[in-house]
Design goal:
- The protein has about 450 residues and is an alpha+beta fold.
- The chain folds into three domains: about 1-60; about 90-210, GAF domain (Beta-Lactamase, 2-Layer Sandwich); about 225-435, Histidine kinase-like ATPase, C-terminal domain (Heat Shock Protein 90), CATH 3.30.565.
- The protein has 13 helices and 14 strands.
- Strands 2-1-7-6-3 form a five-stranded antiparallel sheet, with helices on both faces.
- α1 packs across α6 (about 200-220).
- The chain starts with a helix and ends in a 9-residue tail after the last strand.
Length: about 450
């Protein structure tokens, strides 16, 4: 919404300026033609025709929708680049690169990134006042780090820099968070309070959320002492650069053809990764696990086409709130998308969850895809079987490990597949054997 308001204002301003310029030009031309003895009626008709053409051109070129699409595409390109730069975490080098990417996207005269104690990078008019490695001095930054809340100021803030007193007219400071803890800040400083509008606020908070997500992913990768925990492996298998960049590229493509859908997908994309991080290592309801699976399939339908994938999900009433380890259904749907789709036609994926006796729950994920040989089907969840690289294979092995660890020997996973017909995966969870341990 803020992008729309900003670009509409830009379009209106450009339209007014262009209109005045054309008016003065045509008035001068009319006077010249009349003084040269040209017929009055013919001159007025010619000028009116040119005026209509010019106004039509301006309305098309300066359309707010056109400007919104261009601006959104630029933002997505920068977002993708910042994710790449932050892959190694919050460092001086990565902070500098991010500042260089963000500054041209904003009206800020200076952008800075800090950790909890020091300035990591500062680019713009205050670069010499707050060099890399200098201590944090601004009260707004200390407040954000302590309370974890966004802070804006539109009256001049006086502080000390490396070269003496510094006066900053306006700014916004946004926390960078990992698991609800502030680990740094992203700061936009402006020449005047008028420049700190809703669009700049949305840019600052949006990019801060994106950087926070990447920092959380980096922290998970660095926690090698937890590498043996199955849920961490499943998370690392699920959040991979290929899925990330494929989804971003899909959204970017829609900014040109369907801006509204691009906006909706971007919102779901944020919710998907936020839920992924929040669910790591935890029990979640079956309803939430199915919602996450639907989100994943939404992105894949956007990527391959709505006519290529269709899904149905059914949860027997009363089972919606049953808690299960996160990421035990979504990888099954992903496996179907990656390996069961034919070159043409629609792939149907059905998820059914029902009660089995007094203590059991059956989760069935079936598709009508290409199927697989029996030996491949039987080795699908065998952690000792070879798999190629990272991705779904790792996630499926981890599902088998977690089901065995958490639900005991009465639980199982069966795979039934016929080439040319499709595949069905049956997973029985025996709640009477649930273990109170790490998942």
């Amino acid at each position: 919404m803020s992008f729309k308001r900003e670009t509409t204002s830009t379009a209106n301003s450009a339209f007014v300026v262009t209109s005045f310029a054309m008016g003065f030009f045509l008035l001068g031309y009319l006077i010249y033609m009349l003084s040269a003895g040209a017929p009055v009626a013919l001159t007025i008709v010619a000028i009116s025709f040119v005026l209509v053409l010019l106004f039509s051109f301006v309305l098309v070129v300066l359309s707010p929708d056109t400007l919104t699409s261009v601006y959104t595409e630029r933002a997505l390109l920068v977002a993708s680049a910042t994710l790449e730069e932050m892959r190694d975490g919050l460092t001086t080098a990565s902070a500098k690169k991010v500042c260089e990417l963000l500054l041209p996207m904003t009206k800020a005269t200076c952008i800075a990134i800090t950790n909890e104690e020091d300035v990591l990078a500062c680019l713009g008019v205050y670069a010499n006042d707050f060099p890399s490695g200098s201590a944090i001095h601004t009260p707004a930054t200390h407040y954000v780090l302590e309370h974890g809340r966004v802070r804006t100021f539109t009256t001049t803030m006086n502080t000390q820099g490396a070269q003496g007193a510094v006066s900053i007219p306006a700014g916004i400071v946004v926390p960078l968070k990992v698991r609800d803890k502030s680990v740094g800040t992203l700061k936009f400083y402006f020449r005047s309070a008028r420049q700190l509008n809703q669009t700049q606020y949305a840019l600052a908070t949006g990019f801060a959320d994106l950087l926070s997500t990447q920092l959380a992913l980096h922290e998970l990768e660095e926690q090698t002492k937890l590498a043996t925990r199955a849920e961490i492996k499943a998370l690392q298998a699920q959040i991979n650069p290929h899925f990330l960049f494929n989804t971003l590229n899909t959204i970017k493509a829609f900014t040109r053809t369907d801006p509204k859908r691009a906006h909706d997908l971007l919102g779901e994309f944020s919710s998907f990764f936020r839920a992924t991080l929040e669910n790591s290592g935890s029990l979640i309801s079956l309803d939430r696990e199915v919602q996450q699976t639907r989100r994943y399939l939404m992105f894949e339908k956007a990527r391959f086409g709505d006519d290529r994938i269709a899904e149905t999900c059914f949860i027997q009433p009363g089972l919606e709130d049953v808690e299960v380890p996160a990421f035990i259904i979504q990888p099954l749907a992903e496996n179907a998308v990656r390996h069961a789709m034919r070159d043409e036609g629609r792939l149907h994926i059905d998820v059914t969850i029902a009660r089995d006796g007094k203590t059991g729950v059956i989760i069935e994920v079936s598709d009508d895809g290409v199927g697989m040989p029996e030996d491949v089907a039987q080795s699908l969840f065998d952690e000792n079987a070879p798999h190629h690289g990272e991705g779904t294979g790792v996630a499926l092995h981890n599902i088998a490990k977690r089901v065995k660890l958490f639900y005991g020997p009465k639980s199982y996973i069966h795979v039934i597949s016929n080439i040319g017909v499709g595949t069905t995966i049956l997973m029985r969870l025996d709640q009477s054997e649930t273990q109170d341990c790490a998942i």
